[in-house]
Amino acid sequence: MRVLTTSVRPNSEAFRQRHRAMSALVETLEAAQAEARAGGGAKYVERHRSRGKMVARERIEQLLDPDAHFLELMTLAGHGVRGVGTGGGVIGGVGVVEGVECLITASESTLKGGAINEYGLKKSLRLAEIGRQNGLPSIHLTESAGADLPNQSKIFVPGGQSFRDITRASAAGVPSVCVVFGNATAGGAYIPGMSDYAIMVEGQAKVFLAGPPLVKMATGEVVDDESLGGAAMHSRVSGVSDYLAHDERDAIRLARQVMGHIRWRKARGPDLACVEAPLYDPDELLGIASADVRVPFDQREVIARIVDGSRFAEFKAEFGTTLITGWAYLHGYLVGILANNGILFSESAQKGAQFIQLCNQRGIPLVFLQNITGFMVGRDYEQGGIIKHGAKLINAVSNSSVPLFTVMTGASYGAGNYGMAGRAYEPRFLFTWPNHRIAVMGPEQLAGVLDIVKREAAEKSGAELDEKQLEMMKGMLRMQVEKESDALYATANLWDDGIVDPRRTRDTLGIALSAAATRAVESSTSWGVFRH
Fold it and tell me: Cα separation of 239 and 242, whole Å?
């Protein structure tokens, strides 16, 4: 592999302008992340602590091995959505406990008592999917008031999948541990009940299908919390609890103990024993990509700042040049990289399909760096077979058996999103940069299409076109698309697994690759029909 050279000039005014603009987007991202870390706010955090409890993030910190990583996922789920709270009331990610890489989830109990809302449910289901795809043992740190009842219609039916996921993981031999710190009511009571190991904190855990008020209303029985669903009762009488913890720290100790004796082992490790850092400063990524996705940049400059030793073995460098393909090591893992350096033409689509086949043949995971406005359109390109060549790329992505990892470093428009392993193509992890934009097409293009359609319709009908109304419609469409294609809007709606500071791209992908290495990589040469 050759070392990539760089043409970046950090002292140039253009670089400085891009760096300032991207830094501003990173600051906005960090402010939103601070909202997630604040939970339900200072008042409710203080009330929680006054009861002798740790907040969710402190529980996670105590659970993790010293100096171990925790890759938080979907941090901004529900951000900006009224009545939800940034994070959706759930914290989740990949961390290391007793040397085992685990999926860790925790109820944000300072936010509406940890009640599950629509966004929290979607986030929990996606976290379970990540655990399932990568074969990760799970630890649930539970304290929840159950469903957010005013929104039960959005939660009840899909919510059953959360129970299904735990039991299917158990059937597949992937263990789950549930630690109950407080309420686990109604459907929430089934989480410890369906987990392989259940730990309850004495004097705090309350696990029941119906609390005392509902029991009295339904049966007339008068009963107290402890005898109905307390930790001591479940540990000594019902058998729902496997371990009775004296306090929260003891519960976390027990969770670590359980994970230690499970002795879960990864299917594989890094391909290199010695890992080289990139030769170039990752801070320069802020000045390479533009906050304005219409401004192009060379993805080789990104690759040079995220791969080991900035070394890259490019494949078919002289053919289909708008798609960069090649091999590199990233935190010691050999990966195949596909990166957009422009619009997808027939040649670049064919090249990408061939490269994906080669990596699948050898069992090499794939990293996609998206910055794409779509496939090329026009008469010559249609006659040249852009549809069938684009279909080859999408076929290859769809039927790839190796793990896929996607980072959206700029635009993600049209079928380019599909051909470069967008959400619908089940990448193991999908991250975005804060400048990311996602839509069918850009706002100006959409407004332009609307203009053409309205003018043609008026001409066909012989009606006079209302220019003022058309301009108003175009303006409203632009505003709508600007809002709905923004990175914060996309991540709030869980279209990705989180926005990352560009400077942290390498380490984020490194943890994702490590998590995926828990399962063996399957090589494949099986594909659907390629149209020639």
Answer: 7
d(CA 122, CA 41): 23
Q: Are 140 and 178 in contact (CB under 8 A)?
A: yes
For residues 502 and 420, give the distance between their C-alpha atoms in angstroms, rounded to a whole number.
19
DSSP β-bridge partners for residue 366: 336, 404
The one-letter code for the residue type at 283 is D
90: its two tokens = 């759930």
**In this predicted model, what pLDDT tens digit does every residue of 245-285 receive, in sequence order?**
999 999 999 999 999 999 899 999 999 989 999 999 999 99
The predicted pLDDT at position 525 comes to 80
Rounded Cα distance, 110 and 57, in Å:
11
Q: Is-contact 421 380, C-beta < 8 A?
A: no
The residue to which tokens 């460098």 are assigned: 317
Rounded CA separation 465/267 (Å): 65
User: Cα–chain-centroid distance for residue 382?
Assistant: 35
The pairing of strands 197-201 and 176-185 is parallel
pLDDT per residue as tens digits for the range 388-406: 999 999 999 999 999 999 9
CA atoms of 385 and 383, how far apart (whole Å) = 5
Place of tokens 């549809």: 387
